[in-house]
């Protein structure tokens, strides 16, 4: 699995003759803006299974200290399923891949502070390059898009999370399309989620992902080939998944082939919420209707929309939506660890 020793001159000649040769893993060197933990760096170098985890769910989803217990639980689920967790976020002006326990604690306990931001691709330069009015550096939870970028920079290919951003209902007038979708179009990371939150427009989201060249599939677990692309809190959405995957081995094979070809687009693998945690569709639809009306009345748009709607869903469903959220994300993280394990076998 290790590359043989090659003399400098031979290497230089080889490089000249094959200018398109890319190293097996691109590991950005650490810088004042970007740090990969020693544990994660070593695991990547040794092709051990690594699973990236995002932090917007902690900074803009769950309050402290629930976010801390969730973060710890997800990391331990990766470990007990044979992987190395790499929680990714911005702490004190530095983008970190593989936040240590004390760093994670500092980030999640700053949830709700004005200096703790929700960070997507467009925001990274501001969060790292500037300071708050009080002179302190920024903290930030990275969205799926933001996390994909940093995971890819570190050489991580598998990322598990809760729900994917999407094309919002009414996007034909608001143009609100999550940057998660364009990121999937240009960053080769496999994102394992429970599909798109049902307050989004699923058919438009799938159309958009197709345009962006994103590999989209849903884990079918022996249910055959006619499976819906799931809607986060529910397994059924009425929208068929473009492809299905039988298991983690198939997912790993697709990632391996996709990345070996050098495709620069990403992969979106949906893992439907466990059956017994799935919420009734009527409850969800009624909740969404109310939450969207409230958002509309309050004039909430842009980056604030998703966190606002999710918090209203929590109030409306009396916390059921949050419990479902926890169940699905745990299930996705376990899937992610297994996929990463299968992938590391293929890469050895
Ligand atoms: N799903 C959740 N909680 C969240 C998110 C998704 O249950 O906080 C976050 C993810 O980080 C996702 C982001 O990438 O919302 C999408 O936001 P937007 O729709 O503004 O792109
Ligand atoms: Mn948006």
UniProtKB/TrEMBL annotation:
Full-protein positions shown: 2 to 349 of 813
The protein, known as: Indigoidine synthase A like protein-domain-containing protein
Provenance organism: Neohortaea acidophila
Coiled-coil spans in chain: none
Taxonomy, superkingdom: Eukaryota
């Amino acid at each position: 699995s290790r590359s043989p020793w090659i003399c400098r001159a031979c290497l230089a000649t080889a490089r000249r003759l094959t200018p398109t040769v890319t190293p097996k893993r691109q590991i950005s060197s650490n810088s004042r803006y970007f740090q990969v933990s020693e544990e994660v760096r070593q695991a990547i170098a040794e092709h051990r299974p690594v699973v990236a985890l995002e932090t917007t769910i902690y900074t803009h989803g769950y309050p402290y200290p629930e976010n801390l217990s969730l973060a710890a639980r997800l990391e331990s689920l990766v470990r007990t399923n044979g992987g190395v967790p790499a929680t990714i976020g911005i702490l004190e002006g530095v983008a970190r891949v593989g936040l240590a326990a004390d760093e994670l604690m500092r980030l999640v306990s700053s949830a709700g502070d004005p200096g703790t931001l929700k960070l997507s691709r467009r925001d990274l330069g501001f969060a790292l390059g500037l300071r708050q009015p009080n002179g302190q550096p920024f903290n930030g939870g990275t969205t799926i898009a933001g996390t994909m970028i940093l995971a890819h920079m570190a050489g991580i290919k598998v990322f598990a999370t809760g729900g994917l951003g999407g094309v919002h209902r009414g996007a034909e007038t608001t143009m609100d399309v999550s940057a998660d979708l364009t990121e999937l179009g240009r960053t080769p990371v496999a994102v394992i989620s429970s599909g798109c939150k049902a307050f989004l427009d699923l058919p438009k989201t799938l159309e958009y992902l197709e345009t962006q060249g994103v590999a989209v599939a849903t884990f079918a677990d022996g249910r055959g080939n006619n499976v819906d692309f799931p809607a986060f809190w529910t397994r059924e959405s009425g929208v068929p998944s473009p492809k299905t995957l039988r298991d983690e081995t198939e997912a790993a094979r697709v990632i391996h082939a996709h990345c070996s070809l050098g495709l620069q687009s990403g992969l979106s693998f949906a893992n439907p919420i466990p059956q017994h945690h799935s919420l009734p569709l009527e409850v969800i639809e009624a909740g969404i209707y109310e939450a969207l009306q409230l958002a509309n009345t309050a004039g909430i748009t842009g980056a604030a929309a998703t966190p606002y709607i999710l918090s209203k869903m929590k109030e409306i469903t009396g916390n059921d939506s949050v419990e479902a959220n926890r169940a699905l994300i745990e299930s996705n993280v376990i899937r992610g660890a297994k996929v990463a394990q299968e992938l590391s076998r293929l890469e050895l």
